[in-house]
Amino acid sequence: MESATVGAMRWFVPLLFATLVGCPGDPLSTATPDASADAAVVEVSTVVDADEDAPLADVPEPMPDVVDISVSDAATPDALPDPGPDDQGLPETGPADSSLPDAGPDTVDVPPPELLAISSPGPQTVAERETLTVTVDVTDPTGATRVFAEGLPPGATWDEDSRTLHFRPDFIQGGQTWSVTLTAEDATNTETATFDVQAQDTIQPPWPTVVSTQDQGSYSLLELSQTTDAFLDSPGHAGRSFQARVAVPSGASAASPVPVAIELHGFGGAPSTSGSPDEIVIRPHDPANTYWYGYAEALPGGSPTQGMSRPYTARRVVHLLEWVLKNQPAADPERVYIRGGSMGGAGAATIGLLRARHFCYVEATIGQMVPRNHRPARVSQLSGLWGSPEANLSADEADGLGAWDHQDLTRALAESPEARDQFVFTYHGKDDPIIHFGAVVLASPLTAQSWYSAVQAERVGHYAVWDEGGHGGGDPLLPSFWSDWGWNRVTDQVTFMRRDLPIPAFSNSTADQDPGDGSGNGMQTWSDESGFAGTVSVVGDTGWSGERAGAINRFLRWDASLTQETLWTLQMPLAHIDGDGADPPQSGDPSIGNQYDGPTPLVADVTVRRARHFRCHPGEVISWEFGGLAGEVVAGADGAVTVPQLPMTTTWTTLVLSR
Predict the structure, then answer these.
(1) Which residue ranges form the domains of the chain, and what is each CATH number?
(2) Of 255, 435, 421, 266, whose CA–CA distance to 340 is shortest?
(3) Which residue among 115, 132, 235, 257 is least packed, with the fewest CB closer than 10 Å?
């Protein structure tokens, strides 16, 4: 039988707790406090039980031995008895019941919130013509982190979805190191990491040797001998030597670097001895007339019907470039371009697009852009070197294609982001019987696209000119270089190209003339060798459809000196020119020089190419501003941003893109 004191404790402790804090169903918890300013009642809101109206059980009176700590109307916390350091004012209840579960430690370890972080993968090395794949580790707590890569090696790509860098260095990139900066950014935080990528110089053909140096006044002419090995030549030819010439401006130095031009001669030609005081000129030699590509590895002695058809000639060309960049301090690697006419034009376009990472610009005149569209006589000649189009021997390149398809430049534009970042100038004559106008207007058997349609569809930087000229013979009415006066695409003070600067790719310009679709206009009958070519000296007799002379993307300019980009914005001033020139020589012909003859304003689509910082994710929404116009566009499948139908005048207006 329990004592009275113990019995009193069984109800006193719950009552004390209910008196101080209230409990469900207890009238004390819902009592209205006294209106007196001296009241010391704490109001506590409660959740009422479903049976709150049930009568309370009789509560016995407190035992006399228990200290009365009820709160009176006048009581304050200071009036309560001091509980003392040990018992906190409550009676002892005896030892703890060991049968109760252990509550554990007084504190619970809560892991810190996950923060944005990016880890450097550390230094990376890769051999030439081998593939480096680097996936970056990013802690992404929000799932919406952007990860950007800057400072990529030329030719490298960054896949933001997988956060992976891909790089296959060409054989002239060995010995170079690039510092790559990674930036991870979410709504509140930014983290960066850096790492180096080094290309090992694992492919080392013999260096050219200088045979002689001749002082030509404004430039020095270096005569070179280029000896081959099994990489620059077929096994049966390796060890022979080729002639080459390099013209270096007098007084050129690293303090004042100059552009580098590679000039490719035409069919049956040889390296010129001319030079320039403004640029280094490299002139290789293709005595076998391989169209600056190469030949089957079975040659000589064997038949080009099996094995590979390797780009030996193209390799010799870029190997000369490597030698110049290493041995001429004045050579500016960001201003290397390639040019040529006829066979040289085809070679310039092919090397300049398939190895676009090395060049800021391509100038190809009267060149074939789709090898399968050559006239039958040329297809036969090239089949003896490359193998036939039907055999299509492997080109020994990363795309895994045969030589004829590998060199189809409409395919290159469709498949290669590197090629789409190039800027190409072309000129062709509608009365050319050797490389006829079908070179740019006939569809490729592989892609069903012509060159002209491909550069527009793929939104590639280009400027195309044609007239009623022949194969080297000019138009019967229009003067030479009639389409623009004084614009050097590399050395101009305003509109110039560098490999490390963004460029605009214009398309669908309202000032474009119509080149035709490759069909005939009835003036000439079709010839497999010369197409619809007429007589050069006869005005208007070309058999090709479309206007007899014209241009695509003529008059359009951008201010490269004021073009700027960051991760978050890009600015590029745009305008069209209207300057010195002359009226058209006859109705329906284009104007001459820089005299504008199109509608005002000139309206065109503008695609930003060659961005190094403002790279966009496919499908990313980009804001744009242009004068008083503004809007949003969605980045394309390759991340390129196109703003449609911008109205341009002779006043510079800055296109601003931002994320």
Answers:
(1) 1-110 (no CATH), 117-200 (2.60.40.10)
(2) 266
(3) 115
